[in-house]
Amino acid sequence: GYRWRKEEVEALLNDLLQYKEECNEDYCLQPVVVKARTDGAFEVVDGQQRLTTLYIINKIVNKVISGQRNLPSYSIEYATRPGSAEFLEHIQDIAHVDVESMDNPDFYYMALAARTVECWMENNVQLLQRMVFWGRAATHAKVIWYEVQFADDAAHGSIELFRKINIGKIPLTNAELVKGLLISRTPAGKEEERRNIASEWDRMENQLQDDDLWYFLTDRKSRQQYLTRIDLILDIWYAQQPQPSAQRRDDAYAVFNYLYRNMPSDEDAGGNAAERWLQAMWKGCKGIFANLDFWFKDHETYHLLGYLISRRKERREVNELLSLYAKLSACDKSDMKETLREEIGRTLGIREGIPAEDALNRVADLIYDDGIKVRNVLLLFNLLTIVEGRSSIMRFPFKLYEEEHWDLEHIHATAGGPPTDDEIRELDEHMRTMTDVLPAGDTTGGFVGDGGMQHMNDRRKSFMKGVLGLLKESDAESDICDQVENFIDEDDFSEGNTKQFWDQHSEQIGKNMLEQDGIANLTLLNSSVNRGYGNVSFLTKREWISNADRSTLFIPPATKNVFMKYYTKDPDDFTCWGETDRQGYLHGGSGIIEVLRRYLEPLSDDAMNADRNGNEEG
To answer: Does residue 567 contact residue 590 with C-beta atoms inside 8 Å?
Structure first.
């Protein structure tokens, strides 16, 4: 059926108008594939949409010129939809019809196309010039006429050929259309300029194929809309234009359409106004890419802007970079730091009238159920940890962060109870397979093969020692502490005996345990490491983190610091993550709150001047 929309009809009319005004060459409407019939007519194998649209334009043009009702030079019949041919024959008389009420899809789209042609004519071609416009278009608009013959059944052959022509057809992208416009509007005599545009374009697209750069610039949602990566640069340019007509999510060809509709006529300024306008546009795009490339290479900007782009949002938003670019590109180095500081502060709830201290207090009160907020705080904490280590050459891999699933991991979790034999065996094997650090059957460093009963008992013993440590840290009732301590002293950590003890005392243990869901007991960990972790001890997790870090897996720096107890002053107990550890992690000099506080404090005037001077010298 006929399915062209307003956008396709207007695009064809705009092209025909441009060729009328500027070209003497033929305008090619691409192939029309047909098969000659014995009655002198042609069966259309491919090209129905264009032929129907041209027919509609012809009918509307003849209507608006002194009421003529001349038929186009061809007629169309629809073998399976005879009513469509009759409707099309009277298409010029649908002005009074409510298009939206039409149930027949052919009628709806044909009527919509006719309305579109009428409106376009009124806005683009003076009444007395419409026949001139259409006469020139009819003279110069050509198709590649391709007649085929089938040795087998005609209907079957036509269907098969149509499928071969159309299956897997990839539409032109916005970027390809813009590139074609840039090159085609460069005069034929300036071949060097054409080659330069093509070369610069390809270099830019090739650099954007670097996933480290691409994942730094885009979030998961925005990446899905880009078939061609240079479209991001075009979108940033487009977002800075006065009153852009549509957003990319509404119009896949928004940038091209904006250029096409706003391009000045060469009659305005010595015959090259369009060329100069497009050159300025391309110069702006190159400047945008240069800025993005610099931000990618600058250690601090990379991590801070990367946070703003990669952080999880509670609602669907446009790519953060599109809204930030204009603000950031106008800054020098020190002003940019301050702008990033303000933008990041807003993500933590710091706004006018809300002091940073209040936001930091809210951070300290976050719990597991706060989900996205906790995840963003921990991501920022990891990034600031890297930024503060100025001598470090480490760069946070946003590609891994975006590609892998990340969990909020309880640093020390006891809710599930002591691990069973099967859980220990499965998890050890999973870690061995994932990290490929140790061979199968090696029980060194926490991995276990087919046996290892003592290893399993040791895991449960470590778990129970961690429980005892947490109970003592929380000033639990002496009775439950004594019960757990006596159980440990009995030294029978078989699966059945440990489960029996836990079933009997778990409720009392839970009531006396340290808070499990606060941010001081949470860290970021990719799900491949975290899978099934649940109820193993802190010590076991520490061993696994160490092994994973020695492999090719990425462990966020703050997560590694947690399990190495770098936030704890003089750690002496690695069986649990106790109150002292949690206070160091949350409020210590290198902990979450203090690292955020140091970053969120506005730069002093001396520091800003130093930054400016350094930037000018650079």
So the answer is: yes
